[in-house]
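Supplementary notes for students who missed Thursday's class. We covered one full example, reproduced here. Read the sequence, then the structure, then the short commentary at the end.
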Amino acid sequence: MEQLLELWRGTGIYQLELDQLVMLGIGLLLLYLAIAKGFEPLLLVPIGFGGILSNIPGVDIAVGDGVLHQFYMMGIETGVFPLLIFMGVGALTDFGPLLANPKTLFLGAAAQFGIFATLLGALALTSLGIFDFNIAEASAIGIIGGADGPTAIYVAGKLAPHLLGAIAVAAYSYMALVPLIQPPIMRLLTTKKERQIEMTQLRAVSRREKIFFPLTLLLLVALMVPSAAPLLGMFCFGNLMRECGVVDRLSDTTQNALINIVTILLGLAVGSKLQANQFLVMETLGILSLGMVAFCIGTAAGVLMAKLMNLVSKQKINPLIGAAGVSAVPMAARVASRVGLEENPHNFLLMHAMGPNVAGVIGSAVAAGVLIRFAGS
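Structure (token representation):
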């Protein structure tokens, strides 16, 4: 009988606590959203599964020598996984729409306003005693507004690793909810006439331009904001492999095998930080709330910048593409295109929206470098 009792005490059911049960439910919810609803399945599946593994009692898979903890130490604490993801994104990115209409760079830059507005908001709430975030934690939360999962993970890993789980879940959840969050904001801030603006066809961009752009971009930004060089460097390197035309095998590997492998390991490593004692705290609610505010402000800022540019520009810009200034590539561009088509069946905005969308990736990387430089010092 004593041996049976000892066996029972060793089971996960006996050791299961309420907060762990809640986190197992959250892990299952993430899997449901990914599988049944199609919300960012490439990352929510491994994150959700990793969250389940890390909350099973008696299994030290997410601490010590556990494999998920090793993934975290190897790829996130060092910053390697987000950088490799950025290299893959660069290899998948076409700078053509941005080069064909350089004005859209301002839309991507404006959308980063949500990052810094939320940083200030988090510090203001701390001063009021509602939350208790220092400047490094507030910076890591604010980067959610860029709607760029790898960047959010990279910054959180550098500035606030104890908040990584909540920040990663918030960043990817809001990226997945772009089709639900952005259209109401876009319609609220624009008139029907503005949403019906048709934009002229983009000019053809030469191969030479596409080769020189990532090199020029890297040198200009890295010399001004050196702390942005790791993220932007990997992004530009991936893009250079795509455009130079002499390393097709490397480009293909980066776009497919490498980014897929790293995505699996990254998701599981992030899931290891969804342990109940780290996730079920008051700060998590604050992160989720502030992350939503950051994303909404970023979307609104991009739209409003497009309206402002129309006041001084002869060639009108459809303000809907301003919402694509957040870094959710290419989902935000597709949403802008879809809303434009609903208002005008002859309005094809996808390629126009890709300009600010790509600019948003650049902007979020630069913003990340600025935050790491000042908040991490």
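Commentary. The CA atoms of residues 88 and 259 lie 5 Å apart. Residues 81-196+203-255+276-375 form one domain. If anything here is unclear, bring it to office hours.
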